[in-house]
């Protein structure tokens, strides 16, 4: 790895350390602001959604299959279906849309 590659690694390590160490050192008391507390509450969910959404649409060779699976998953989860049922239905919808796309 060239010197530029090691520079990237050092910068990434510094940024990672700063994002983890600064909040621990700067915020010593309990956060009482309602807006900030509600914002911090949803950060993990938003982070997971931002990483998962592009993977859902691009996981198959047919982008429509990912979109249909996303809609099926949202609909079933909204109606209270369990994780196993939602994942099974999403897989079945991807299979069905992919087979339909290949047949056309």
Strand content: under 5%
Molecular shape: flat
Summed up, the helix count is: 4
First-to-last CA distance: 48 Å
Unreliable parts: none
How helix-rich are the residues, as a percent range? over 70%
Q: How many runs of DSSP E, i.e. beta strands? A: 0
pLDDT averaged over residues: 89
- Write the element-wise H/E pattern from the N-terminal end onward: HHHH
Largest sheet: none
Query: What class do helices, strands and sheet pairing give?
Result: mainly alpha
Rg computed from alpha carbons, rounded to a whole number of angstroms? 21 Å
Count structural domains. Answer: 1
Short structural description:
This is Branched-chain amino acid transport protein (AzlD). The chain has 4 helices and no strands.
Characteristic terms for this protein:
flat, transmembrane, single chain, transmembrane helix, 104 residues, 83% helix, mainly alpha
Could you describe the 3D structure shown?
It is a single chain. The protein has one domain (4-103). The radius of gyration is 21 Å and the shape is flat. The chain is mainly alpha-helical and 104 residues long. 83% of the residues lie in helices and 0% in strands.
């Amino acid at each position: 790895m060239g010197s530029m590659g090691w520079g990237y690694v050092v910068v990434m390590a510094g940024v990672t350390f700063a994002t983890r160490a600064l909040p621990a050192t700067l915020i010593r008391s309990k956060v009482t602001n309602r807006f900030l507390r509600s914002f911090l509450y949803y950060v993990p969910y938003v982070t997971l959604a931002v990483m998962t959404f592009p993977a859902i649409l691009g996981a198959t060779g047919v982008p429509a299959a990912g979109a249909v699976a996303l809609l099926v998953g949202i609909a079933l989860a909204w109606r209270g279906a369990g994780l196993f049922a939602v994942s099974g239905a999403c897989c079945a919808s991807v299979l069905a849309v992919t087979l339909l796309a290949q047949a056309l």
